[in-house]
Write a structure and sequence with these properties.
This protein has about 550 residues and is an alpha/beta fold. About 30% of the residues lie in helices and about 15% in strands. The strands form 3 sheets. Strands 2-14-13-1-12-10-11 form a 7-stranded mixed sheet, sandwiched between helices. The chain has a 7-stranded mixed sheet with strand order 6-7-5-4-3-8-9, with helices on both faces. Strands 15-16 form a two-stranded antiparallel ribbon. Helix 9 links the parallel strand 6 (about 235) and strand 7.
Length: about 550
């Protein structure tokens, strides 16, 4: 930090001592929801987590782990492991998703980054294709961001641009697609007046073309692929306005418009994706972009026959999956976060050990430390990665590496070489994503056993524990109606939910080293993951920096 007068030195906490070993356990994908047969955490044998919940009410509470609590735009945005660990480690809430894109576009920074420079290589001889939701709903994308991106790409050398639109009608009024297409057509006409060949090339409704999620129906992606890449669709039109009006006249609504391509006077598609082209998916929200990203990026893709796989440069607006590193190129980088709790604590003599298995190792290190690789001080820190199982889905071995992680944590605690021992137990999330309820129940039990091993070690050294989570997943494994009832498919079977949830997550504190009188405050009812950092700093015997979200604990005499 170059600012004058800045100091890494933290003030001593007036009532809490230093020198206690603090174990910080993050249960990945472990939310709190009503108890029923689809709540794998409830069904599983989890005696340790149950005892924390029922044991001391002033030492267990819920915190928010989605939406604005983790920097996402709306309360309808599920949390995820990346933003969750950012918040846990940073102690403050940083813009994520749409806000991040707004900042990058407003500053022009988006055009200076490696992602834009990667796709720009194709501008001289290839076409720039933009694929995404044409809407001002602000949930998955925003029209004004697309307009700025079109303008910026044109000013930076794009000679030929094709837009592949997905109509909304879900986050905005049904029928509003016609107005959005007319607006975009006017924008493209202005771009053409500057000598750039810019057109709409294809389209379709978001729920029928391209924007499926959680690998629910790969046919949705295939319809998009056929129109966008192959230039083939059952409906062909000379203009997108004509296409949307005509298809709506047949009774289709915006969400379910069938795929169409725009053709020239000879009936040839005006914008299939071919070798040497650049492709950007411009949605900022991740969940409905992961499947198309896989089809565009993976060489060994096998979910449907792609027929022709063009050699392209592909980037997402953001990286849609931090665990899969998908896509590998993206226009807007994660937020730049400095002065994280980890860096402060190392500067104040707190020796740190962090461990998880491969799929979540980056979360307790890179994302925890503000999207920063490596150690702050290698003499004060040790990070251990346990290789995850490969070549199988996680429901095949739902115990994953929970016990191995716990053993490393136990040994680190008992060695007394570390003041903080931080782990992520991935089971609830990674097995939850498979949709296998029985396996997820096993996964939750394994995570609970791992927690026991860590808490037993803390007991032996007279330390303190903090057990929390990063977002929900395993606590609700079924899709639900607005009234909360499980949804059934056409065969009468329940529709499995493989995604994260909007549920809050638990945080529990305890251990023999916890000073008498420490309890959760009652005046932070909306506390979220970002409040955890100040809490942990207090338990290490320090006051948190003044700009951190407030601590969750107080000390009563």
């Amino acid at each position: 930090m170059g600012s004058s007068g800045f100091s890494w030195k933290l003030a001593d906490h007036p009532k809490l001592p230093k020198g206690k070993t603090v174990a910080l356990v993050v249960l990945d994908g472990w939310g709190e929801a009503k108890a029923d047969q689809y709540n794998c955490i409830h069904i599983a044998e989890t005696p340790v987590m149950d005892s924390l919940k029922k044991g001391a009410p002033e030492k267990w509470r819920l915190v928010r782990a989605h939406g604005t609590a983790v920097g996402l735009p709306t309360e309808d945005d599920m949390g995820n492991s990346e933003v969750g660990h950012n918040a846990l480690g940073a102690g403050r809430i940083f813009a994520q998703g749409a806000k991040l894109v707004d900042l990058a576009l407003a500053s022009g920074k988006i055009y200076d980054g490696p992602g834009f420079n990667y796709i720009k290589e194709c501008f001289a001889s290839g076409t720039l294709h933009l694929i995404g939701l044409l809407s001002d709903g602000g949930v998955h994308s925003r029209l004004d961001q697309l307009q700025l991106l079109l303008k910026g790409a044109g000013e930076r050398g794009a000679k030929r641009i094709r837009v592949h639109i997905l109509t909304d009608g879900r986050d905005v009024l049904d029928g509003s697609s016609v107005g959005f297409v007319e607006t975009l057509e006017n924008d493209l006409a202005e771009i053409r007046a500057k000598g750039i060949d810019a057109q709409i090339a294809s389209g379709g409704g978001r729920m029928y073309v391209t924007m499926d999620r959680y690998e629910n129906d790969w046919n949705v992606i295939k319809r998009g692929w056929d129109a966008q890449v192959l230039g083939e669709a059952p409906h062909k039109f000379k203009s997108a306005v004509e296409a949307v009006k005509a298809l709506r006249a047949t009774g289709a609504n915006d969400q379910y418009l069938p795929p169409f391509v725009i053709v020239d006077d000879s009936g040839k598609a005006v914008g299939p994706i071919v070798d040497g082209d650049a492709v950007v998916t411009f949605n900022f929200r991740a969940d409905r972009m992961v499947m198309i990203a896989k089809s565009l990026e993976y060489a060994d893709f096998d979910k449907f026959d792609r027929v022709r796989v063009p050699k392209i440069r592909y980037a997402g607006m953001l990286q849609y999956d931090g665990e899969l590193k998908l896509p590998s190129n993206y226009l807007v980088s994660p937020p730049e976060i400095e002065r994280t709790s980890g860096e402060y604590l190392v500067h104040n003599g707190v020796r740190t050990f962090a461990c998880s298995e491969t799929v979540k190792f980056g979360h307790v290190t890179f994302f925890w430390n503000g999207n920063r690789s490596g150690y702050f001080n290698p003499e004060m820190e040790e990070y251990v990665e346990i290789p995850s199982d490969v070549g199988i889905t996680f429901n095949v071995k739902p115990n994953m590496k929970a016990i191995e992680i716990a053993e490393k944590a136990r040994d680190a605690i008992l060695s007394r070489k570390f003041d903080q021992v931080r782990v992520n137990l991935p089971n609830g999330d990674m097995v939850g994503h498979t949709g296998d309820i029985e396996a997820t129940i096993v996964a939750c039990k394994a995570a609970d056993q791992a927690v026991k091993m860590i808490l037993d070690a803390i007991e032996q050294v007279g330390g303190i524990f903090v057990v929390t989570a990063d977002h929900g997943n395993a606590e609700d494994m079924v899709k639900r109606s607005k009234s909360g009832q499980p949804l059934l498919d056409k065969n009468g079977n329940i529709q499995i939910l493989t995604s994260h949830t909007l549920e809050p997550v638990p945080i529990a504190i305890g251990g023999p080293g916890l000073a008498p009188g420490v309890r959760f405050r009652k005046d932070v009812p909306q506390g979220g993951l970002a409040n955890v950092a100040a809490t942990v700093m207090n338990l290490h015997g320090f006051e948190a920096p003044s700009d951190y979200e407030q601590t969750l604990i107080e000390v009563v005499d």
